[in-house]
């Protein structure tokens, strides 16, 4: 019984975006071709990564007695660093990490700090250090010489929360020039511990779209990213999350503001909602509660739909469900097959070799975007 409870707790935390389910595979020896991570502060040599996916860290803490690097959203795992005579501490992960982006922080004598050598990204309900393990398929989110869209911050009024709230809006290349054209909209949500900066900073959503549009693989559309009000619940407290306040912000306040201030096709057939991890949970609840608001649904490591969830098939143009191969791919594939048998347009995608992490979600968006707004 105790083992069953522990397993359920781990699955719940993973679903919330709190921890990855895996951390690479241990190998014998790391190849000594380390180079600075692409997410380092300007001029900083460490942290470093090598061609196998190992990470190496170096921290200056001459007065410390113990230094450890904790990797993953929530600080899972740990790499002990060894002190040198000059007061610096250095260590290498015991095995390679999955491709893509990872959060981490440094534990110095029990205190949590960010690595001065790395850029910071909002995750784990705080600004965390970030490291990028080069991926074999990183070209799809690379910065290329193609027309680029714009990402702008907006502040929209929210009577329900008695404040102005923030969102980021991606408008595709040509939006400013094509004044007569109106665009579909994807409302894209982050996971627990993150905020509205995640999809562009960690996920490179804007670059993914720029490249797809330049290649003629996706219709141009607007993406809106706002804070999902997820971090008000405590770590692991999914059962206590009430979707109602955020649903009001999304449906009654943000969408009308976007439709008024941007050139949108303001109807359900041109509106999508998707989210990663806990953002997927929000997506599922809101799309089922408000079937007249969205017609494209996307859950990225964020659960599944069952055929009985959909009351009217005519409301739904697409259901997209994805996860990493190190998560629960069988569940995703089985759910998708059941939806197809029920007559729904359902698509599944499994990111090979990744877990509950941003490489899974980058790849998922890359697969999802070409499927949106085709009808």
Automatic annotation (TrEMBL):
The keyword Thylakoid does not apply. Residues 1-23 form the signal peptide. InterPro entries: AB_hydrolase_fold, Esterase-like, Ig-like_fold, Ig_E-set, Mycobacterial_A85_antigen. One of its GO terms (molecular function) is acyltransferase activity, transferring groups other than amino-acyl groups. This is Enterochelin esterase. The keyword Glycoprotein does not apply. It comes from Pricia antarctica. It comes from the Bacteria. Coiled coil: none annotated. Keywords: Signal.
């Amino acid at each position: 019984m105790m083992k069953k409870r522990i397993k359920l707790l781990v699955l719940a935390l993973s679903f919330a975006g709190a921890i990855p389910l895996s951390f690479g595979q241990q190998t014998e020896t790391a190849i000594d071709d380390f180079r600075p991570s692409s997410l380092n502060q300007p001029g900083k040599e460490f942290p470093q990564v090598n061609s196998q996916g190992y990470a190496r860290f170096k921290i200056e803490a001459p007065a410390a007695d113990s230094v450890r690097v904790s990797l993953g959203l929530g600080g899972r795992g740990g790499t002990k660093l060894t002190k040198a005579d000059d007061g610096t501490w250095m260590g290498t992960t015991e095995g390679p990490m999955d491709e893509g982006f990872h959060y981490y922080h440094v534990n110095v004598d029990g205190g949590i700090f960010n690595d001065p050598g790395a850029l910071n990204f909002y995750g784990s309900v705080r600004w965390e250090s970030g490291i990028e393990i080069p991926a074999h398929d990183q070209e799809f989110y690379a910065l290329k010489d193609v027309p680029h869209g714009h990402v702008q911050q907006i502040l929209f009024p929210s009577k329900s929360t008695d404040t102005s709230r923030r969102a980021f809006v991606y408008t595709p290349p040509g939006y400013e020039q094509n004044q007569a054209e109106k665009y579909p909209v994807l409302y894209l949500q982050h996971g627990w511990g993150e905020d509205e900066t995640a999809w562009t900073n960690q996920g490179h959503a804007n670059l993914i779209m720029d490249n797809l549009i330049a290649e003629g693989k996706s219709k141009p559309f607007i993406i809106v990213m706002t804070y999902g009000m997820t971090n008000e619940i405590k770590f692991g407290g999914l059962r206590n999350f009430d979707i109602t306040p955020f649903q009001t912000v999304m449906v009654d306040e943000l969408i009308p503001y976007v439709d008024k201030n941007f050139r949108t096709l303001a109807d359900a057939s041109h509106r999508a909602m998707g989210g990663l991890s806990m953002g997927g949970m929000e997506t599922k609840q809101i799309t089922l509660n408000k079937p007249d608001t969205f017609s494209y649904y996307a859950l990225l490591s964020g659960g599944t739909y069952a055929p009985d969830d959909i009351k009217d098939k005519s409301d739904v143009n697409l259901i997209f469900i994805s996860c990493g191969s190190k998560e629960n791919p069988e569940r995703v594939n089985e759910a998708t097959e059941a939806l197809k048998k029920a007559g729904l347009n359902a698509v599944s995608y499994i990111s090979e070799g990744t877990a509950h992490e941003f490489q899974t979600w980058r790849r998922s968006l890359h697969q999802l975007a070409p499927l949106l707004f085709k009808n």
